[in-house]
Amino acid sequence: MQMKNLFLVIYAANNFLGKVI
User: Fold this and answer.
1) Whole-number Cα distances in Å, 2 to 5, 7, 8, 18, 21
2) Helix/strand/coil for 20
């Protein structure tokens, strides 16, 4: 569960950075 949660957090951060840059 924690591993999946961490993956979602990284994915969300990556998506956010992708939109910003």
Assistant:
1) 5, 8, 10, 24, 28
2) helix
Is the model more confident about 1 or about 3?
Answer: 3
Cα separation, 1 vs 8, in Å, equals 11
Q: Which of helix, strand or coil describes residue 11?
A: helix
Indicate the length of the chain as a whole number: 21
Q: What confidence score (pLDDT) does residue 8 get? A: 97
Tokens of 9: 């957090």
pTM of the entire structure? 0.45
